[in-house]
Amino acid sequence: MSLSVKIVFLGLIAVSCKSLSQSETEFTKKREMMVASQIESRGITDPRVLNAMRKVERHLFVPPDQVSRAYGDYPLPIGYGQTISQPYIVAFMTEALDLTPAMKVLEIGTGSGYQAAVLAEICDTVYTVELVPSLAQKAKNLLLLLGYKNIKVRTGDGYQGWIEHSPFQAIIVTCSPTRIPAPLIDQLDEGGRMIIPVGERYSQELIILVKKNDRLTQKAVLPVSFVPMLDQNQNAY
Asked: What angle do CA 22, 28, 30 make, to 5 degrees?
């Protein structure tokens, strides 16, 4: 390589690295702003949740044509009729589980893997189930690439949970059935908490359930709009 060509080559590398650094700095600023204006301002106070929301790079979990909108205050499409939830809803549902570092958590509806990554920053292990095989594989690949060794991804019917690894100290559901799935109740540990949207499409409530002495208490906490929970024949539960 001639000296002049080498200088040009090294110059291109320097420009590329500078551009990448600038992009990462900009994304970091956007995450900080997202947490401050969309999450803390609405009453989320758990420092573990806030730190996870600052750390997980949301722009990596959305399609390329949605990257510029990744830190906006709204859900985004991720293909196959699915969405990545609004950042505030991710934070709200995560805080509602009252997680501790030793917990084993079940997530129903992996989607892009973003919610699983947020959970994995706080708890010991996340088991996550996704109905759409392509989404499950894509999320699995991305989460492994990002170094999340404490997330286990499975393709399957979320209504049935993941009985082999139950009981779970917390369960989070990111798609909406019209009734609370009995298998998920059975797989919730004594003292465990579940948060789940329940109701018809476009008319749902987030429900928090707590299992104590083998009995359930439940409380509606927030009106929401999630995609429906489907079986493998695309029928809604």
From this structure: 105
